What we know:
The protein is an alpha/beta fold and 148 residues long. The protein has a single domain (2-146), classed as Phosphoglycerate mutase-like (Rossmann fold, 3-Layer(aba) Sandwich). It has 4 helices and 6 strands; from the N terminus they run E-H-E-H-E-H-E-H-E-E. The protein has helices spanning 25-41, 54-61, 83-87, 103-113; strands at residues 2-7, 47-50, 67-69, 94-99, 126-133, 138-146. The protein has a 6-stranded mixed sheet, with helices on both faces. Strand 2 (47-50), helix 2 (54-61) and strand 3 (67-69) form a beta-alpha-beta unit. The relative contact order is 0.24. Pfam families: His_Phos_1. InterPro entries: His_Pase_superF_clade-1 (IPR013078), His_PPase_superfam (IPR029033). This is Phosphohistidine phosphatase SixA.
Amino acid sequence: MQFILWRHAEAEIGTGNDLVRALTAKGHQQAKRTAHRINKMLPKSAKICVSEATRSQQTAAYLQRETVLLPELNPDVLAVDLLPILQACQNDECVVWVGHQFWIGQLAAYLLTGQWTDIWFKKSAFWQFDLQFNQFNHQAKLQKVFSK
């Protein structure tokens, strides 16, 4: 499976409901630039999944593709809880998850090392993996990192 983890672009500082924070002007520029790079490598059949957070949805909107809203990708989730969702994907799929630090960094670390630790993703950065699951474990190869 081709799997891309994309952290949302720069967002407003929140004072209330975290899910309604929107992208800043800089964030819109970041998302547009990153989406251009991602779109170059995505097949038409790619599945784009976003959290319920406004900033995540606004970031993904620059791909100009249909998205699937997954509350499981919200900012307050635990990365370990995402693994079964990822394992349910087919090995021949292309999947993009647009979401949030800390789960993005924790999931990336687990895929690469097998350990639940942290890797820091810059805003609007993405990591592309070639990922295969079998009955007992996974194999992940980091294909590309974009962080500007």
